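We were asked to recover a plausible sequence for a given structure. The inputs and outputs are reproduced exactly as logged, with field labels preserved.

PROBLEM: sequence recovery
POSITIONS: 148
GIVEN STRUCTURE:
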């Protein structure tokens, strides 16, 4: 692992059902996420996804790559809205390596649009290799999720 080492990507297809479930999960009933008429009044072509999707993908990438206990700090900023039907792609790279920490740069894309950016610090394991070198295997958007 060296600076500029890319992290494996994580993808998620956002759809209206996922947006509705997110509204319930985070108790955010804002109609801009659920009703097209409200989204149109706000100047959007359709409902918009919660920022939690982009931020959550960053967290998923970090915890699958480094392990949950290794994550020390995460900062993120939302840049643009995400709409139903878009596929989010979260990617990152190593920006710095210290004796006990690794610094990372993260971004979430929807097509060519950068919708979120962030940075993170994870603890560096005593020995090179897992968990930082393992491959991230995220479920495909078409695969069924856990039963609710």
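RECOVERED SEQUENCE:
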């Amino acid at each position: 692992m060296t600076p500029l080492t890319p992290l494996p990507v994580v993808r998620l297809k956002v759809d209206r059902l996922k947006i509705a479930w997110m509204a319930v999960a985070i108790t955010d009933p804002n109609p801009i996420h659920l009703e097209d008429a409200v989204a149109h009044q706000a100047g959007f072509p359709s409902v918009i996804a919660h920022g939690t999707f982009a931020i959550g993908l960053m967290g998923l990438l970090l915890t699958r790559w480094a392990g949950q206990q290794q994550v020390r700090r995460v900062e993120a900023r939302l840049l643009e809205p995400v709409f139903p039907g878009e596929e989010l792609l979260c990617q990152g790279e190593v920006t710095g390596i210290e004796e006990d920490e690794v610094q990372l740069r993260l971004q979430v894309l929807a097509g060519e649009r950068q919708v979120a950016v962030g940075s993170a610090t994870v603890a560096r394991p005593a020995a090179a290799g897992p968990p930082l070198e393992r491959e991230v295997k995220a479920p495909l958007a078409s695969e069924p999720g856990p039963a609710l």
